[in-house]
Amino acid sequence: MSEVIYILLGWLATVGGCYALGRILWSQLGVRMTREEEISFSFLVGAAGYSLLLFGLGLAHLYHRGVFFALPVVLGLAAWRLGSFSLPADRLPPLSRSLRWLVLGVGGPFAVLYLSNAMAPEISPDGSTYHLGLVARYYREHAMVPVHTSIYAALSQGVEMLFLSAYAIGRHSAAGMVHATFLFLLPWMMLNWGRRKGFATAGVAAALLVFVSPVVGVDGISAYNDLAGAAVVFAVFALLDRWDETREPGLLYAIGAMAGFSYGVKYTLALAVPLALGWVFWRERKWRPVLVVAGCAAAMILPWMVRNAVWWQNPVAPLFNAWFPNPYVHQWFEKEYKLSMQTYTLASRWMIPWEVTVQGQTLGGRLGPVFMLAPLALLSLRNALGRRLLLGWLVFSATYFSNVGTRFLIPGLPFAALALALLPWPRWVLVALVVVHGVLSWPDAMTLYGERYGWRLDKVVWREALRIKPPEEFLRNHLPSYSITRLIDAEVPAGRRVFAFQQVAEAYCHAEVIVGFQSAQGEVLMDAVHNALKEERRPGLKVRYQFAARPLKQVRAMVSKDWPEARWSVHEMRVLHGGKEIPRSPHWRARADSTGEWAPFAFDNSPVTRWIADMPWKKGHGLTVDLGVPQQVDEVVLEMSLDQPWEGIVLDGIPEAKISASHVPPPTGLRRVAMEEFLSRNVHYIAAANDEYWYRDLRIRREYWGIEEVGTRANHTLYRILPPGYRILPPGENTRIMNKK
Amino acid sequence: MRWGWLLCLLASGCTPVPQWYPVPYQRVLTVGADPAGLGEFVSFSQRAAHEHVVSDVLEGSPTDVWRWTNQKPTLRFFLLEPNEWQFQVSFVLADSTWKTTGPVTLRVFVNDQLLGTAEELAAGRHEKSWPVPPAMVKAKAENIVRLELDKVFVAEGDGAKLGMILEAAGFKKQ
Predict the structure, then answer these.
(1) Alpha-carbon dihedral of residues A204, A209, A215, A221, nearest 10 degrees?
(2) Which residues pair with A625 in a beta bridge?
(3) Is the Cα dihedral A48, A52, A58, A64 positive or negative?
(4) Quick check: A163 pLDDT over 60?
(5) Which residue of chain A comes nearest to B16, CA vs CA?
(6) Which residues lie below 8 Å from residue A419, measured CB to CB, with a gap of 6+?
(7) Of A259, A401, A472, B164, which is most buried, counting CB atoms within 10 Å of its CB?
(8) In chain A, % of residues over pLDDT 70
């Protein structure tokens, strides 16, 4: 039971801290709204400020449990002393009895479903891996630190800061509860907006359409940030709408802070900033109010940009790496990652409407079949209010096709729902629509249509929420990689790192897990494995450039034409004279026009590492070695893999060089060489899943890799890489070494 | 002034990446008894034969010169170029299993395309070959060959499926 108390304490401290700070800030704005509106906007403004405050505490290395307890208490006392907790007496018009019954009847069961799942152990795919994995890492380090092994650490982490506060006290479930707060806040704000505008029924209907939507529920109870983002951008819209009516100057500060916080929550929501600036300028035609909004937004955005500029050499990391080349995230990866996010595994984008409303598996969750009516919302173009809502829908769905996951529709969903509900439906039709949506969205009903195993909630789990059932069992049953993280925690000594091709539930283990696709560092390790295992990736091609001997200080191989489909890599570049390789010296320096930091891989004598350009062939781009002092050279050899062209690669300044290429047997022993590369990067363990292509090879050829099995849990096996100096011996002897514990 | 601030902001991401990097320490290759990589042909007397196995070939001891298979033994081969290959396979249908299965049909697929069929195979040793159309194989890449038997022996005790005793398979020039 103490665990439950700490979960609630963690949630309460965070939400309370946000609210207290929000009341202090709001009371300074000189804006008076109705009680309901002030509560919601104060909380959101406070959340933005609290997040920023925690950002600063992280840089000051002050992430300690006591701080997270003390902060809300101090803020609460300050708000009380300042009288900021006093709320206006004005209230929004009350809901009619029938609407209250509709809210209770449809929303009530979902509220129970959501609260129980939010309090249950965190099992979401991204929450258990990077959202809370990074939060846990920061908390362990007592500071916000650069984590260059995860692209997700480069994203803005406005909501993750709030998770951190809750996690420090109540661990994972407390963070989930914090996100669930936004899940409840968003429909309440929609409902309030409808009441203020005089459309209570439409407000209630739209709020319920959003609230009971399956993907909204499962996302909102998880340690994600989509619902927080949706609440923040809806606040931007509602505040702009309010400012449009009253022109209270204090509102501009709140609008700017909320717009800036949108960026802090999720990059794709940064469109709130141009929306706010454009709206204010359009209506006011003066620069001063625009500057107020811009200044407040900048205060929320710049900390993240400066952090990334310093830590990642890219203010908007992990995006726009072509504009800001850096050694942490490569543009080629970014391009491929974006491409994969644009289609997932769908054969056609025409399948998206069916997938996101009914099927719900490939794109991760469903909105509910009722949202197939969403295009009807376009009919609200006929009135001014409808046009505003559609503008909100358009702006906050504009980036959807960069990632077609269902949850990326959530920020625009409130606007679509309101525009739909505001159509001149007969009241009973609107009520029926909500009731049908509620029925179709209940977990039991969802088993009757669409994909059974899509991302969705399963049932009310109050026993798990109250920890009457032990969390271990729930986690093992619902989180496939949880079991291996327990083994990692038990077996991997502090400071050792683990490599995995796929994400594991990092939030539940202490060791650093390097996931291959998540960073340039991971790419090097992944490359070493591919180069050892895939025939076409081994250095099986030798291209020789022979010319009359001459003294050279630099040798530069370069491509002589543009070729958008080709990518160039070099395992080794060797410089020779008289048929003998000139020994490499510590005075040598290497340079490349793309991925310069990887240029040394072409001069390390390792057949499993290679320099690889981060862009397609571009005429004049090349790889250069500086020999320190001029030396007699008459031959240059490039050792490359078979998966790329070589005709068109020339030596700079030696056009007469005779070029010949031959296929050569690549060296043997590459598996172990790959493992030596792992060890040299402090990676001593491998967590392999049984659906990965190297899984079988690892199992049956352990002696060639130089690894020993630590254990198998569920669908993963953990291996320890035997220390440097391991030599491949005849089978019998190897077996003895491997069995020696 | 305003543009100056804007430029400063934009330039904040343009931290110059060092252009020259020192050459790292030289790795010393620990060349050992690692599988030598994929080739065009595998004989199971080779030590590195298991490199070619994708699935459905049972484990054997290092001294074995053949392997039992299941129903769909699948192998991989690396070809540098696509022309003038024929696919060869040498195998034995054991008397003991043949008594249960009766005549067996073998179908050979290269990269999921049917290359050829051998029907009504009797017990004993067989050597079969089929010319391979260049369009069927991939150059400078792995090629997957699946040998499918229509019938296999199923052991009563553990349910193990035994198909053929595979000795060698792969691509040879015509």
Answers:
(1) 20
(2) A555, A590
(3) negative
(4) yes
(5) A313
(6) A377, A378, A380, A386, A389, A390, A393
(7) A259
(8) 98
User: What angle (nearest 5°) sits at the alpha carbon of residue A639, between those of residues A636 and A644?
Assistant: 120
Q: Which residues of A186-221 are buried (b: 16+ CB within 10 A; e: fewer)?
A: bbebbbbbbbbbebbbbbbbbbbbbbbbbbbbbbbb
* H or E stretch covering A545: strand A541-559
Which CA distances in Å does B147 have to A318, B40, B76, B95, B152?
Answer: 46, 16, 11, 20, 13
Nearest Cα neighbor of A330 from A595, A149, A644 is: A595
Q: Which two tokens stand for residue A560?
A: 């002589």
User: Best of B17, B25, B28, B34 to disrupt the A interface by mutation (most A CBs within 10 Å)?
Assistant: B34
Q: Which residues of A525-554 are buried (b: 16+ CB within 10 A; e: fewer)?
A: bbbbbbbbbbbbbbbbbbbbbebeeeebee
How many Å apart are CA A387 and CA A581, to the nearest integer? 72
Q: What count of CB pairs under 8 Å joins A to B?
A: 127
pLDDT at A733: 42
In the block, residue with structure tokens 């025409």:
A350
Q: Any chain B CB within 8 A of the CB of A701?
A: yes
Q: CB–CB of A611/A623 below 8 Å? A: yes
**Which of the listed ranges A572-576, B13-17, B120-124 does the model predict with the highest average pLDDT?**
A572-576
Which residue type does B157 have? Answer: G
State the complex-level ipTM: 0.81
Give the tokens for residue A340.
């994969």
First to last CA, chain B: 77
Q: How far apart are CA B64 and CA A659, in angstroms?
A: 45
Nearest to B79 by CA among B34, B117, B132: B132
Which run of H or of E encompasses A638?
A: strand A622-640
Q: Do A671 and B36 touch (CB under 8 A)?
A: no
Nearest to A641 by CA among A602, A599, A583, A693: A602
**CB distance B142–A324 less than 8 Å?**
no
For A115, the token pair is 């609260």
Asked whether A464 and A176 are in contact (CB, 8 A), the reply is: no
Distance CA B57, CA A471 (A): 42
Among chain B residues, the shortest Cα distance to A532 is held by B37
A536-549 pLDDT, tens digit per residue, is: 888 989 999 999 99
Who contacts A604 (Cβ-Cβ below 8 Å, separation ≥6)?
A: A572, B23, B24, B25, B26, B27
Compute the average pLDDT of residues A318-322. Answer: 95
State how far the Cα of A203 lies from the Cα of A96, in Å rounded to an integer. 12
Amino acid at A551: P
Residue B107 burial class via C-beta count within 10 angstroms: exposed 0-12, middle 13-18, buried 19 and up: middle
Residue with tokens 């260059």: A148
Give the tokens for residue A22. Answer: 């929000």
Token representation of residue A203: 């407000």
Give the closest-approach CA distance of A107 to chain B in angstroms: 47
Cross-strand bridge partners of residue A581: A576
B53 in helix, strand or coil? Answer: strand
Measured at the CA of A431, the angle between CA A426 and CA A432, to 5 degrees, comes to: 95
Span A92-115, mean pLDDT? 97
Q: What is the CA radius of gyration of chain A?
A: 29
